[in-house]
C-alpha cells in the first residue's frame, strides 16, 4: 500500500484489530524518531503494528515490537526491522501516559503511522483489553446495526 501523492495525512500503517481487541479510551499524536531507510520503507508500505505497544522508561516513551521491513535499496545502512523507536512527546504528555498506563488494566497501543507534511507521526491510544464477552457483544451490536441499515435501505428502495 504505497502512499498516494496529494492525499491529506496519508496513513502508512494501521492497527486494524485494535478496536476489536481493545476498548480505546483516548488518543495522542506523537512524533517518532526514525532513520532514513525506515522512512523509505514506511512510504513503500512495509510496516506492521499488530504486535506493537508503547512503554515508558526513564521518562522516555518507546515504541516496541513494531515491524518495519527493510528497504530494498538500503544496503549496509539498512535498519533492524524490530528495533526500539523513541516517540517524541512533551514531558507532561509522557507523565500523563505513564500515569494512565500504571492504572490497572490499561495499556498504550499504537493505532496508526501516518504522514503529516514530511514528518511521520504515530497515533497512540490509551486502551483497556476487552474480554471475550465484550468482543461478542460488540460483534452482535455491529450485526444488529447492519441489519437495521439493510431494512431501512429496502424500505426506501420500494
Give a written overview of the molecule.
The mean pLDDT is 88. With 158 residues, the chain is of the alpha+beta class. The chain has one domain: Small Protein B, Chain: A (Beta Barrel), CATH 2.40.280.10. It contains four helices and nine strands. The longest helix is centred in the C-terminal third of the chain and has 26 residues, at 132-157. The N and C termini lie far apart (40 Å). It has a seven-stranded antiparallel beta sheet. The chain has a two-stranded antiparallel ribbon with strand order 3-6. A hairpin with a 2-residue loop joins β8 (106-116) and β9. It has helices at residues 18-21, 36-43, 91-102, 132-157; strands spanning 11-14, 22-32, 47-48, 53-57, 60-64, 67-68, 85-88, 106-116, 119-129.
Structure summary:
With 158 residues, the protein is of the alpha+beta class. It has helices at residues 18-21, 36-43, 91-102, 132-157, and strands spanning 11-14, 22-32, 47-48, 53-57, 60-64, 67-68, 85-88, 106-116, 119-129. It has a single domain, classed as Beta Barrel (Small Protein B, Chain: A), CATH 2.40.280.10.
What's the helix and strand layout?
Elements: E1 11-14, H1 18-21, E2 22-32, H2 36-43, E3 47-48, E4 53-57, E5 60-64, E6 67-68, E7 85-88, H3 91-102, E8 106-116, E9 119-129, H4 132-157
Antiparallel strand pairs: 1-8, 2-7, 2-9, 3-6, 4-5, 5-7, 8-9
Amino acid at each position: 500500500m504505497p502512499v498516494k501523492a496529494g492525499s491529506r495525512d496519508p496513513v502508512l500503517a494501521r492497527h486494524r484489530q485494535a478496536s476489536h481487541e481493545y476498548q480505546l479510551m483516548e488518543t495522542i499524536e506523537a512524533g517518532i524518531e526514525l532513520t532514513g531507510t525506515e522512512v523509505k520503507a514506511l512510504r513503500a508500505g512495509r510496516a506492521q503494528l499488530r504486535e506493537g505497544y508503547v512503554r515508558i522508561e526513564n521518562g522516555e516513551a518507546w515504541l516496541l515490537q513494531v515491524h518495519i521491513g527493510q528497504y530494498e535499496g538500503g544496503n549496509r545502512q539498512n535498519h533492524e526491522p524490530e528495533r526500539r523507536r523513541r516517540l517524541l512527546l512533551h514531558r507532561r504528555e509522557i507523565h500523563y501516559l505513564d500515569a494512565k498506563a500504571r492504572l490497572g488494566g490499561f495499556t498504550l497501543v499504537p493505532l496508526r503511522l501516518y504522514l503529516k507534511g514530511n514528518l511521520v507521526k504515530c497515533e497512540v491510544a490509551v486502551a483497556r483489553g476487552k474480554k471475550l464477552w465484550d468482543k461478542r457483544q460488540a460483534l452482535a451490536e455491529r450485526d444488529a446495526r447492519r441489519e437495521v441499515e439493510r431494512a431501512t435501505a429496502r424500505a426506501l428502495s420500494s
